[in-house]
TrEMBL record, chains A, B:
Site (Important for catalysis): Y136, K187
Gene that encodes the chain: leuB
Lineage of origin: Bacteria, Pseudomonadati, Pseudomonadota, Alphaproteobacteria, Rhodospirillales
HAMAP family in alphabetical order: LeuB_type1
Binding of NAD(+), residues: 71-84, 283-295
EC number: 1.1.1.85
Protein task: Catalyzes the oxidation of 3-carboxy-2-hydroxy-4-methylpentanoate (3-isopropylmalate) to 3-carboxy-4-methyl-2-oxopentanoate. The product decarboxylates to 4-methyl-2 oxopentanoate.
Pathway membership, UniProt: Amino-acid biosynthesis; L-leucine biosynthesis; L-leucine from 3-methyl-2-oxobutanoate: step 3/4
Protein name: 3-isopropylmalate dehydrogenase
Subcellular location: Cytoplasm
CC terms in the record's Gene Ontology section: cytosol
GO terms assigned for molecular function: 3-isopropylmalate dehydrogenase activity; magnesium ion binding; NAD binding
Cofactor entry: Mn(2+); Mg(2+)
Family label: Belongs to the isocitrate and isopropylmalate dehydrogenases family. LeuB type 1 subfamily.
């Protein structure tokens, strides 16, 4: 199996957190690693946030690992040159329709949540958000002038059977590797697009995934239930807009945004392989860039997701996840997750600690 | 000033919680109170969840106070006869476009929240949700068959200038009576309807409400901020869909759903008076109906909102709110909010306690 990984460190803290990931992938070995530029870094070198060559390399790679893009240096650029456009082009040209947003709480960090500790300790839920359809992309859209001097703003929420089925399939496949439960979220009571969503997800489950337990929930109730008892969920699958709000709500529940990875997946080819982009949820944090202060764990955990979902290397992914847990349990923390009585360590020391913990577990 | 109040107790626990409100309004005095049927109770008596006579009375009244509708007895009725249709007709024919959903935490109940107590103690935020427009009502809508055998589900998110301005005005007026801050919430970064929303709210503020502080926030960030630090907000104004999710999320943050009131307001007439419907957020709770177990406080607090917003009786509303606080502080609780070491009291005893606390404060 070919394992070509395109690494795009990007801007701000991207390069320094990715350097720790690079060490880790080198240690595991067997990858064909390429590097490229994206975002402001690409604009500075080539006058565009993503070159056609890099885009072609991304389409050819088995997985793309991205750090972060953006920063004040490029904020005044015209719309098409902004760093974020590089990331959006990657998502669009790779047709990444399924956004996987885990909400994970490491035991050692459970008290960082604004929720009471017992409610989040051990939390491990996965939100699968549809990423290329729905009201953020539907036509017609725009703002029009009315004859009476008012204006009217319009967007269109639209989903087809195949758009729903392909993302639901990702959720069911994930559930099979987890606790076997999917909760599908929409507003079928007031939106026909939600009713179609519910029916198509149920039909797919009944036809192909009878081993997976499927429930349905209205999006407003889901927002309540995430706050009331987040551990009730295994996999949540929902549309682009509801997924936008619910995945951010769930991420905040963990209390450790700087720890969260994500994946965006495209369609499976004949061999079952999917286009895939992995990236930490956090941004480029230009205020601390280049100071050896950034927490590399979200990027390391994104690499772990890559091993698990793109390369079927569950054992190695488990090893990385466990090593991160060991490091946190040992009280080794970067500034963003440090607690009273602990001395914060730097980005490189955190990478050292994860590698050492992997070695210890592998050798022990 | 005329003070005609139409009381619609409805179904389940509605009549018994409303009986306590009735005692309280009688004590304050000066109201012309009418009673009517809504929901299953109306269906049983008249074969419809809302008669034309009751609808006419609601349109003539200065305020409508509603208990709750629905229950298993009426679940198998055809769509148009269901209890909920009575409530929906009231909202529609009264043109109630602004839904006020306070998220209030009483000191004595702060530990009931799933959030850490310090983060919610003293919480008092108000979400103003647009209630008659947006994607739940926009046309075109529906599910269509495509030539390729797939189906397509469509809904339309649409807002006009006047729809935005009238609900924003409600939010600004409320802010003036509170902490003077409004946060307007949309997704202007990806939705033109959200961009129009943002522009029209800002234009109104600059033209007429320069004394109110206005900020803008994306809806996904708002979902995060409600969980991270809910006390940062005073008034939030947002559209129908975002308001649906965010108001339920905020309600759950309080940990005491059975305590929360709501108001739905229509347009102001020449004298400044608005059509208005007040109701608790909780449902009809048929499982405990008729057993003197229901908590009347959400309905009592809905009556307090009525005094404040429909009748400009701030002193009396403050008195009710303070009396409720006294009762909770004294450890007098119905079963839904009772804590270890307390003996739960019934619905009537809770009404007794609130009236006694009002008398004590008024006479003290
Ligand atoms: Mg988001
Ligand atoms: Mg709701």
């Amino acid at each position: 199996m070919s394992k070509t990984v395109l690494i795009l460190p990007g801007d701000g803290i991207g390069p320094e957190v990715m350097a720790q990931v690079r060490r880790l992938l080198d240690r595991i070995g067997g990858f064909n690693i390429e590097e490229g530029l994206v975002g402001g870094a690409s604009y500075d070198a080539h006058g565009t946030p993503l070159t056609d060559d890099t885009m072609a390399a991304a389409l050819k790679a088995d997985a793309v690992l991205l750090g972060a893009v953006g920063g004040p240096k490029w904020e005044s650029l015209p719309f098409a040159d902004k760093p974020e456009r590089g990331l959006l082009r990657l998502r669009k040209d790779m047709e990444l329709f399924a956004n996987l947003r885990p909400a994970l709480v490491f035991d050692a960090l459970a008290q960082a949540s604004t929720l009471k500790t017992d409610l989040v300790r051990g939390l491990d839920l996965m939100i699968v958000r549809e990423l290329t359809g729905g009201v953020y992309f539907g036509e017609p859209r725009g703002i029009e002038d009315l004859p009476n001097g008012e204006r009217r703003g319009i967007n269109t929420q639209v989903y087809t059977t195949s758009e729903i089925v392909r993302v639901a399939r990702v959720a069911f496949d994930l559930a099979r590797k987890r606790d076997g439960r999917v909760c599908s979220v929409e507003k079928a009571n007031v939106m026909e697009s939600g009713l179609l969503w519910r029916e198509e997800v149920q039909t797919l489950r009944d036809a192909e995934y009878t081993d997976v337990q499927l429930s349905h929930m209205y999006a407003d109730n889901c927002a309540m239930q995430l706050v009331r008892q987040p551990k009730q969920f295994d996999v949540i699958v929902t549309d682009n807009l509801f997924g936008d709000l619910l995945s951010d709500c769930a991420a905040m529940l963990t209390g450790s945004l700087g720890m969260l990875p994500s994946a965006s997946l495209g369609a499976a080819d004949a061999s079952g392989a999917r286009k895939a982009l992995y990236e930490p949820v956090h941004g480029s944090a230009p205020d601390i860039a280049g100071q050896d202060k950034a927490n590399p764990m979200a990027c390391i955990l994104s690499a772990s997701m890559m091993l698990r979902y793109s390369f079927d290397m569950a054992a190695e992914a488990d090893l990385i996840d466990a090593a991160c847990q060991d490091v946190l349990n040992a009280g080794i923390r970067t500034g963003d997750i440090v607690e009273a009585g602990m001395t914060p360590v730097g980005t490189v020391a955190m990478g050292d600690a994860v590698l050492a913990a992997m070695d210890k577990r592998a050798g022990g």
